[in-house]
Amino acid sequence: MRRPPELGVRLGPLLDGRRPPLSVFIAHGDGWFTRDLVAANAGHLDHVVAVSGRVRDLACDGTPATVIPNGVDTARLAWTLPREEVRRGLGFGPGDFVLGYLGRLAPEKHVDLVLRAIATLPDRFKVLVVGWGPMLPYLQDLADLHLPGRACFVTAVEYLGDYYRAMDAFCTPGDSEGTPLTMLEAMFCEVPVLVTSVGAVPELIQDRVNGIVISQDPGSISSAATLLAANPHWSRGLAAQGRATADQTGHASRVARDLEQLLTRLWLDKFGSVSPGPSPR
Q1: What number is the average pLDDT over the span 52-60?
Q2: 3-state SS of the chain: helix, strand, coil percent to 5?
Q3: Which of these CATH numbers, 1.20.1540.10, 1.20.120.330, 3.40.50.2000, 3.40.630.30, describes 74-246?
Q4: Backbone angles phi, psi at 45, to 5 degrees
Q5: Which of 27, 81, 153, 203 gives 20 to 30 Å between its CA and that of 41?
């Protein structure tokens, strides 16, 4: 259901008639909410930073825009224990294939598809869900019904590398994204990724080269998981290619540098110096 435009954030009333010297909006998603925000506030924006070419094309609506893909802080991905020790503590055995998800448990993330997919596979296929959000009780009930003893739910805010490295593959089956940050985190941890073709995914992932592109269907997810489990050497090669892609494009330090260069250019283009004078009213 489309959200009524009048319920979105509007800069005009918040600014009380004062327009910032330079106003730049960062568009993180490719869905209707971002499109509405950009369209409603276009008169207050000098520029939009889109986190993917798709976001720019779908959400910027004629407002000047620059694509700066998202990146992640790899310090979040530290780990403290060997992989098998973490897996054992989570209830997984050495012969299990663990398909994981990490992030918000919100309706648009469709984490239930991961559970439904694994429920169709043999018992050695398990699920690790790391996250929090309004869908948690529903997902736990779904797992109890269809995956008794085969799903683990945890909450974590640090040492995420322990959890990523406990996975044999990572899956994010959402229907709207910018650049999925958890996808990049999994790639940095050399975990093969299963991702829907949303946001920046087509710009980063080449199917079956550095990841697997899935559809929003349990059968697509279960087929990809089965393929990886049956071909462990290929799976490791896929993960290595994913890590190379993340190293090339996915560092937060690159995002900070690109943003600094863009803001400096926009400022100089608008004012011709480092001092803009009084704010326009």
Answers
A1: 87
A2: 45, 15, 35
A3: 3.40.50.2000
A4: -110, 135
A5: 203
Whether residue 120 contacts residue 222, with contact meaning beta carbons closer than 8 Å, is answered with: yes
C-alpha radius of gyration, the chain, whole number: 21
Q: What is the pLDDT of residues 103-131, one digit of tens each?
A: 999 999 999 999 999 999 999 999 999 99
pTM: 0.88
Please, which residues have CB within 8 angstroms of residue 18's CB and are 6 or more apart in sequence? 279, 281
- The DSSP secondary-structure symbol of 207 reads B
Residue spans of beta strands (DSSP E) within 108-180: 125-132, 151-154, 169-172
pLDDT band of residue 275 (cuts 50, 70, 90) is: low
SS3 251: strand
Tell me which amino acid residue 230 is: A
Res. 79: pLDDT tops 50: yes
**Contact call for residues 98 and 128 (beta carbons, < 8 A):** yes
